[in-house]
Amino acid sequence: MKKWIGLGLSCLLLTGCWDERQLKDQNIILGAAIDAPSKEEITLTIALPQPGNESQPTTTKQIVSATGRTVQESISKIDHKIGSGLQMGKMQVLLISKESVQHDIYPLLDTLYRNAVSSLNAKIIITEGEAEPFFRNELEGEPLYSHYYNSLIRSAEALTIVPKTNLQLFASPLFDKNDGEAAMAPLLAFNKEEKTAEVKGTALFDDKHMTGELSVAETTMLLLMKDEKEKEAALTYPVEKDKSMTIRVEEIKRKMKIHVPKDGPATVDLSYQLRYRTIDYPPDHLGDKKEVKEVDKKLSGEIKKSMEKTMDKIQEAHSDVLGIGLRVHAKDPDRFKQLNWDTAYPELNVKINVKAELIESGITF
Amino acid sequence: MKSPATISPFQLFFVLLQAQIGIGLLTIPYTAQVGAGKDGWISILLMGLFVQGGIAVAWLLSSRFPGLTLYEFAPLLVGKIIGTVLTLLYTLFFFSIVAHQLSLFLSISSNWAYPRTPHIIYAVLSVAVTVYLVKENLRIMARFLVLVSFLLLSIPFAILPIINHFEIHYLLPVASNGVGAIMKGSEKLVLAFSGFELFMWLYPFTEGSTKAKWKAAAGASAASTVLYSFVTFASYAIFSPKEIKVVPEPVLYILKEVELIVIERIDLLFLTIWAVFVLTTLMIYLYMASTGLTHLLKAKEHRKPLYVLAVLVIPLAIATENRETLAGIGDKLNSVSIVLLFFIPIVLLIVALIRKKREESV
């Protein structure tokens, strides 16, 4: 008898589920775009997928936009337009227009950090022009837009042409204006003629708004400077009058020395040891040791020049993406406060030293 | 009221470890930074040292009365009336820890995973599971606690994939906020470390030499100190010092980003593992509270008092749902626990030393 009472009770208690989210009642959002020309006007665009089957792949079914004062208000306005509940937990990409991040980006992201359902490994992307057309325009041969943008960024990350980031990694710098590190995110443009999206480089942030951008080549340089080479990183430089060469960076070692004298400005010494392989070298005479030395020397100079140019650019944007401020703070917090990093960073004297070394030339010399 | 079932020192180790690791595991990096900022992990190590002191006191005390629990030897030291008051105090303390942990458990799980499930359902389910085990004797409980302890290994494994996102510079320079801040950080952590005091009740039920018992208790506490400071260190290396101020459950939050090849949202998976740690803490404390009540009522066995307490704890736990009130209650419990975990045992030990009381001499 006792057993039966127990059984009955557990049937009553263990069934029922208040927090079930059935797939058939849910719209799973894989990607969203935000355009916020002013602080009070946030347009959210979402792409709803159409589940696929064996004969037909998953496609984008519907694009819906709504404007509200907060992101959540826009979401509920979208809810008014479509039948079933929105499910943000599977979001893969979040596109935000360049215009929207000229002012504070944080209000656009807060809801994603605040609610437990959101997925923080979604890629954050800044778009040239409005973000909405990235979902509205036709993409050649790509049925599922969010997936395409996600894989575009992932492959770009592997090639070291965009910084590796996601919503979570992006957040930390937003909170620490004065402690150094700055946020950055990939920059994407839409190519209407070819009906594709194109990686344009990196959006640089100072505090919570965008202050500058880097081209693809500069981004690679920056990531090398940050010692964040991914699977591959290719660089192209002129070698002779009308010939250029392309190298692949195999290994890069960084030494960062920070001098913070008690009085006077801080200085930074960056020295890099870079080992590379040639993957494109039209002059064809790498069999000669002397020649190799020449090329090494020339390349070291060229890379140094690009690094210095990139450094100038990030300093100009007030964007301390190398985290120099963080290191100065770690070394001497009192001096860091005295320095007033906001004004000290653009004036910072950075010395860069590069030593490139050929280790492999492919199967020909 | 001596239960015949005894446990081995090995089991004692896990009982004490599971008693310490509970709700605090998720929130300890946040709690520690309130006072100590980025040096919170040092506060935890420091607190671990204090706890070792507390264990030494408890051990010295208990080894004078090897066959008695604190409920039984306190009256011998300070008289019947104060002894009864102490029993009442400790029983109330254990009971309020159960209620507090349960309501925190409900609030965190509803915030993270089950926003629409009524708290009462969750409360009834967890208390039912707890009672189911606690109504048995200590040995059976201990076996279960040893069994689930392998889950503790999941903590370092969950954090492993994000190690390459660590920004060690967030933690530098070490101890720049001064010793005062570190001490202030430790002060808030007593509640997270509570559990070691149970040594004074479990001592007589543990077999083996006094030294083996001490080793088990000290080891358990050292293990939880290491675990706590590890998760705290990891949280501080992921979140910048200002960011951590807005993240009350950093350990879950850092797991939100982890993406293994086939699984996403490790935080939700970890939540279920953590629920086991919370339940084990509830079990041990509910057991302690019910044996306390048994002692007060001079009842024969702890089952009936247990059922009474279990029914009482549910309304108490669901009465306080919001985080602000819970944090306030937590602070008060923390202050009380400084007295009950450190102060009273020390006083008792001093009395025992002065009056030269031992179990044989009574």
Layout of helices and strands:
The complex is a heterodimer of chains A (365) and B (362).
Chain A: H1 2-14, E1 26-28, E2 31-38, E3 41-50, E4 59-68, H2 71-81, E5 85-87, E6 93-97, H3 106-114, E7 123-127, H4 133-136, H5 145-158, H6 167-175, E8 184-191, E9 196-206, E10 209-214, H7 216-225, E11 234-240, E12 243-259, E13 267-280, H8 289-316, H9 324-331, H10 333-339, H11 341-347, E14 349-360
Parallel strand pairs in A: 1-5, 2-6, 6-7, 7-8, 13-14
Antiparallel strand pairs in A: 2-3, 3-4, 8-9, 9-10, 11-12, 12-13
Helix pairs in contact in A: 7-8, 9-10
Chain B: H1 9-20, H2 24-36, H3 40-64, H4 70-78, H5 80-112, H6 119-134, H7 138-148, H8 154-159, H9 178-187, H10 190-193, H11 199-202, H12 210-238, H13 250-255, H14 266-297, H15 303-319, H16 323-354
Oligomer type: heterodimer
State mean pLDDT of chain B (0 to 100 scale). Answer: 87
Number of helices of chain B: 16
| Helix content class of chain A | 25-40%
User: CATH superfamily name of chain B?
Assistant: Amino acid/polyamine transporter I
Gross geometry of chain A: globular
- Total domain count of chain B: 1
Helix content of chain B: over 70%
Task: Flag low-confidence runs of chain B.
Answer: none
The biggest beta sheet of chain A is recorded as:
8 strands, mixed
State which percent range the strand residues of chain A make up: 25-35%
* Strand/helix succession of chain A: HEEEEHEEHEHHHEEEHEEEHHHHE
| Gross CATH architecture of chain B | Up-down Bundle
Instruction: Tell me the fraction of residues in β-strands of chain B, as a range.
Output: under 5%
| CATH fold-level assignment of chain B | Amino acid/polyamine transporter I
How many individual helices of chain A? Answer: 11
* Unreliable spans of chain A: none
